[in-house]
Amino acid sequence: MPDTRVRRRRRFLVCEPRHFAVRYAINPWMRPDTRVDVDLAQEQWRTLIGAYRAHGHTVDTVAPVPGLPDMVFAANSAVVVDGRVFGSLFHAAERRAESGHYDTWFRAAGYDVHRPESVCEGEGDLVPAGPYVLAGTGFRTTREAHREVQEFFGVPVISLTLVDPYFYHLDTALFVLDDGPAPDLVYFPEAFTPGSRDVLARLFPDAVLATREDAMTFGLNSVSDGRHVFISPRAEALASRLADRGYLPVPVDLSEFHKAGGGIKCCTQELRS
Ligand code: ARG
Question: Which of 3, 29, 54, 165 is the most exposed place for a label (fewest CB within 10 A)?
Fold first, then answer.
């Protein structure tokens, strides 16, 4: 395959895992008694940030807040399209306070923030893909929030229903490789209802179909800039299929974060201008 994949420079918002821990269980990956090695988590996280910068991306940071161990999962705080911010309203009471801290960052950076009326977990469930916003529901973000997102951005929102509790956010089951007008993407079909699978097959007939193993190793919780794919080294099989498709896998291990049900994409909010 010729080397034709083109990187687009991104701007990311992240949150240092200084207060990261597993204290409550709001998805099947979390066990409240799990010991997290915070030093290792910080080192893994810094490696990710270093990899983004080394590949030409800009990284902004929001200050971590004590008592909010999941605040490191910046993707959940909002979805930003054309410089417009649709904020978050978390399903779990334990995470509700994160939204206000992110909103403060967005406002200080000059953005207005739209506050959702219904449960909505940002890029965890809302994935801009070419002419659409793909939107997950079933565990966290509601159908009502999907309607609100469509009204707010004026972009067609495609609702997709998730069925497997291990893949409770859309960004654990699907990611965009190339977000051009005809987006290239990869997803794990069994994470979705049959109807949602059919919708994905109709819209993206050429998508890469991932395996359960790819999904369980957090291979679908990856970030692509159109050329480089920042991906878990545990998702080797998927990385090699993506390499065959012309992408350049950049392995980054966030194993400490898997204990909380998160990976590379969860730690990364994209600020789309
Ligand atoms: N412990 C967090 C939760 O369950 C993990 C969030 C992962 N974020 C993501 N974008 N999938 O809410």
Answer: 3
